[in-house]
Amino acid sequence: TPRAGGQCPACGGPALDLESRRELLLDLAKRSILDKLHLSQRPTLSRPVSRTALRTALQHLHGPPQEALPEDNRGQECEIISFAKTGLSNINQTRLDFHFSDTTAGGMEVQQASLMFFVQLPLNTTWTLKVRVLVLGPHDSNLTLATQHLLEVDASGWHQLLLGPEAQAAYSQGHLTLELVPEGQVAQSPVILAGAAHRPFVTVQVRVGGKHRVRRR
Amino acid sequence: GIDCQGGSRMCCRQEFFVDFREIGWHDWIIQPEGYAMNFCTGQCPLHVAGMPGIAASFHTSVLNLLKANIAAGTAGGGSCCVPTARRPLSLLYYDRDSNIVKTDIPDMVVDACGCS
After folding, report:
1. How many CB pairs under 8 A join A and B?
2. Residue numbers in B near A26 (CB within 8 A)
3. Pairwise CA distance, residues B113 & B80, whole Å
4. Cross-strand bridge partners of residue A41
């Protein structure tokens, strides 16, 4: 009730002046959004992403699956795009590291993960690429090979590789490393890493707080 | 449901838009520009049981109120002004590793209010 000195009709307490009420509502809105995103505070951005890379990546996003989920299994659907940090690379192999540290928030269940990378190939050439999935060993020691995929690439442009359960498990642990190894001799790796518009990235569909969701009493 | 206007004291929906730029969140929330944190406010006296936008069927509302008031022995009790229609809030934001996250938070925006 905007009238000063009035009584709040809901809780009977003293009515707030408009400015204090606005502050209270803004604070409530912040807390409500952070709670639903399983965040304790707003993120501080470590490495801002360029508008170009953002626009390129968003073209590969699609809405979460629309089929209705049984009520007891409904969790919050999320789609995540992680841009690669390029690790040790040379003409024989390209290493891509992906980090996702909010994995513990609300119990995350990876449903699907795929790698997107840009290739510049000479005309009429085909190129066989091995993609190795490396995971951290016990006690976060060195990286071990979990599985690998073989890919035939015969045109320049964006290519997508659906990653299997090993990569999904690694991602839900918060750290995924991929190695792109060209088969046969190449003068230089056709995978384009540099430039904001061609940064490799992984798109992941997750369900947060699914089957293990605390039942509402 | 009814939107609050002027000094209305009856149960209605109060619109309240939170502009992410105003609260300094526009750097990490890519889309949308803000959040309609509408809320329900106002009173639900006995005689409005069953009015349009009610949170239950007419029969149920009146019956519940009568039962509650007979049981409590009080006259003129009321019910609560609650959301009767809500929709999700779709967010596109950066997490602390600069990953881009797209998610739909269910039941975040109140579209209508009514007396329970």
Report:
1. 99
2. 18, 23
3. 10
4. none
Nearest to residue A115, comparing CAs of A19, A31, A203?
A: A203
Which tokens hold the place of A158?
């964006």
CA dist A48 and A39 (Å) reads 19
* Residues of B whose CB is below 8 A from A112: none
Contact criterion met (CB below 8 Å) for A177 and A83: no
Whole-number Å distance between alpha carbons of A29 and A19: 15
Could you list the beta-strand ranges (E) of A69-107: 76-83, 85-90, 93-99
Which residues of A fall below an 8 Å CB-CB distance to B? 2, 9-10, 25-26, 28-30, 32-33, 36-37, 42-49, 54, 57-58, 61, 64, 76-83, 99-102, 208
Name the DSSP letter for residue A10.
Answer: T
Give which of B57, B50, B58, B114 is closest to B86, Cα–Cα.
Answer: B114
Residue identified by tokens 């035939």 is A152
B23-42 tens-digit pLDDT: 999 999 999 999 999 999 88
Low-confidence stretches of chain A (pLDDT < 50) are 1, 64-73, 104-105, 211-217
Residue A185 near residue A162 (C-beta atoms within 8 A): no
